[in-house]
Amino acid sequence: MSYTEGGVRILPKLCCRPPSIFTMSFVAFRTLETLFYYFISKMVFFKSTLEGLLTAALFISSSPVLAAKRSLQPLPLSRNDRWIVDANNNHVPFVGINWPGAGETMLPEGLGYQSIANIVQKISQTGFNAVRLTFAIEMVDDILDNGGDVTLSNTLSIALGEANGAAMLGKILSNNPQFTANTTRLQVFYVISLKNDKTLTGPTGY
After folding, report:
1. The model's pTM
2. Quick check: 110 and 165 in contact, CB under 8 A?
3. Under 8 Å CB-to-CB from 160, ≥6 apart: which residues?
4. Is the separation of the CB atoms in 153 and 144 below 8 Å?
């Protein structure tokens, strides 16, 4: 609505009261509430999806037929164009897993709780056919700087302390009796590379 004053058209001044603190707080609360329920719904969806994927993975990995099929690919492996093939020229998909060995002890992990044979067997039975066995660059530098490797007893004591190192050494030797306190770190890696827990042969001049 407008009116004329002195020949000039006057528009009424619009009154727009700024929102109150209460209104702004309420709007902010409802916005946060909406975002909260949105993220909750996404988390529930992610959880159900992850559970489904894990169930499928466990089913596949626990299938003796699939595991046997993957483990029966005949050697030697070779290359055909961009494919890796077995002795029958069938494609070989690499399904790999990490075996960490670059921790403070600079030893492959898990030997204090399982034998090498058990760990390797479980890796194979689960369906993996490639292992990325990591190692510490510090171990290489240590060997080069000191002119030789150190024993299990020494590396565990340095990394874990005398008491904890001795306790872990006892567990490792109990699960892997082919080793001794004087076995070196490289000898442990060598035995794992052969997948052999029966004898300790290989590099001794380290």
Report:
1. 0.59
2. no
3. 104, 105, 168
4. no
Q: pLDDT tens-digit profile of 173-204? A: 999 999 999 999 999 999 998 864 444 444 54
Sort 156 into a burial class: Cβ within 10 Å, 0-12 / 13-18 / 19+. buried
No. of helices (H) and no. of strands (E), the chain:
7, 6
pLDDT digits (tens, 9 = 90+) for 114-139: 999 999 989 888 888 889 999 999 99
The CA-to-CA distance between both ends of the chain, in Å, stands at: 98
What whole-number distance in Å separates Cα of residue 201 and Cα of residue 146? 23
Q: Which residue, among 99, 103, 96, has the nearest Cα to 128 in the 3D structure?
A: 96
Are 98 and 130 contacting, i.e. CB atoms less than 8 angstroms apart?
A: no
The helix (run of H) or strand (run of E) holding residue 120 is helix 116-125
Strands 3-5 and 130-133: unpaired
Q: Which residues contact 97 (CB under 8 A, 6 or more apart)?
A: 123, 126, 128, 130, 131, 132
Separation of alpha carbons 9 and 67, rounded Å: 89
Query: How far apart, in whole angstroms, are the C-alpha atoms of residue 123 and residue 141?
Result: 30
21 Cβ partners below 8 Å, 6+ apart?
Answer: none
Asked if 131 and 99 touch (Cβ cutoff 8 Å), the reply is: yes
Reported as half-sphere exposure (CB side, CA atoms, 13 A), residue 67 has a value of 16
The angle formed by the CA atoms of residues 60, 66 and 72, to the nearest 5 degrees, is 150
In the block, tokens 């949105």 appear at 38
Domain boundaries, the chain: 21-62, 94-194
